[in-house]
Prior knowledge:
Elements: E1 2-9, E2 17-19, H1 22-37, H2 44-49, E3 51-52, E4 56-61, E5 64-74, H3 77-85, E6 86-88, E7 94-96
Antiparallel strand pairs: 1-2, 1-5, 3-4, 4-5, 6-7
Amino acid sequence: MKIWILHGYADGLIDPVVSLEYPVVYEAMKTAYEATLDGEHQTPDEKECSYLRAFSATAVVCGDWHEWEISVQEITDFAKNQKEKEILCFNGKTSYEK
């Protein structure tokens, strides 16, 4: 199982978008990219440096760089089943089945 994470920098770090589905994360990136460029005037150099790709986007407006990136992480069987394997010991400490 994979988890998709959108992270980036646009006037500070953006709040990450996390989903089990790539299209959800891509649409969030595309929407942010298009909103950044909406109604803005770009110089030819800024247009040349701006792009939207499958796993990243960069928009340059008035010399400010806005960048987004999608990363993917594999969720291991241990992480998926960790909660099921967790047991509570008599002394209140948590341990895990082997």
